[in-house]
Amino acid sequence: MNNRFLWSGTELQAAFGQADISTGVNGISIDSRTTAPEDLFVALSGNPGPRFGGGNEKAGDGHDFIEMATNAGASVVMAHRKVTCAAPVVWVDDTLDGLWQLGSYSRNRTSAKVVGITGSSGKTTLRVWLQAILSPMANCHASEGSLNNHWGVPLSLARMPAGSDVGLFEIGTNHPGEIEPLSRLVEPDVALVLNVLPAHIGNFSGLDELKTEKLSISHGIRSGGTLVVPVGLAGHSNHPKIMTFGEGGDVYAKGRSTGSGTVVRIDVAGTVVECEVPFIGSERVESIAALFAVLSALGFDPDQVVAHISALEIPGGRGNLLEVGGITVIDDSYNANPVSMKMSLVHLGSMEKHHRRIALLGEMLELGTASQAAHQEMGRYLEGVDQVYTFGSGFSESSFARQGHFSSVDEFDLENFVSRLEPGDSILVKGSNKVFWKREFVKQLTAFIDHPC
What we know:
This protein is α/β, with parallel strands linked by helices. It folds into 3 domains: 9-98, MurE/MurF, N-terminal domain (Udp-n-acetylmuramoylalanyl-d-glutamate--2,6- Diaminopimelate Ligase, Chain: A, domain 1); 110-311, Mur-like, catalytic domain (UDP-N-acetylmuramoyl-L-alanine:D-glutamate ligase, 3-Layer(aba) Sandwich), CATH 3.40.1190.10; 320-450, Mur ligase, C-terminal domain (Protein-Tyrosine Phosphatase, Chain A, Alpha-Beta Complex), CATH 3.90.190.20. It contains 13 helices and 19 strands.
């Protein structure tokens, strides 16, 4: 095999049965704006078809951007519509199916051990942690960002080098029936269900259906592979090889806060190790247990894991502590569900009190009929919180926004808010992705604090 390319021309010929492709590629792109030289540009149509709720997406047709992609250096194009193109074309009946075909071929051309990760909250953090631990010990490929849906998973698979030792892939869902086909594509050797919480539940009949959906990741596990689940989920799966984490499980972790971090004691099937991690929170300790369980299922010794534990960090927007101008900002803006918001509020209320504790709470989306009750329930967890601002229609019926409710952050006078902050204040920013994260609210907030007008 020609190691100069991610995909040689010969491999592309084999994957698609087309003898006229002789050009290799070094990347896979679906966005002409980020296409790089020697990429394969896949011209997705924007409609994923009936398997994944086709017709709901508003993305454009990638065929309209083929010229832009080839101008950016794409050396091969995948298309299903007749187009004029300067680069060689892989012709398929449907480009999404073609991307899946390439992902499947990628999985089967490698001897890598593959991990599939699902859960309602914390998937990306866990994947980043696994990558940090494994990279010094193995050639590790991982999905980027949150590429965990019907096009993100096959794209991540297609980007996996043939020589990888380990592959890490997130698998997400917001509709019944999405996880199983993605898991069958990934064919994990180890599949993790990190948790099942009332997040993205709007298209499910309830938590039981969501639980069934998450556990369907086991249907794609390769023969002899392991399903890793919290203790409470073990009885809901008939997979032949299950490893549990949490109190009473095969792997159990207990944490003790040091103020700036947490000392964690982990018991892995009777082998006990201890380490210190640079973050706090009970949910993080549970994720540490899941981390050790997955790595144990892959065959790594707990002492090997501890040796690299200092490399762990929390991805942006997931509870990061930012110290700016004498103010502590807790950036938990990436996403929210009722359980994670409750935990964030309890953590804020229990922080060592320097001055005031302030909560900026954005609505929690995709909760369906449970939305109103879930938002109102947050009022029960405000002990120790001095000021509360709420944003979005989900909180419109709530009565605990002591400092005000806003339909969106556009109505919020950020400059005025910052002008009234005092040294020692702590601010929690927590809400669904569209409320704060996509608007870069925390970036604006810290900029105002750092350079007040």
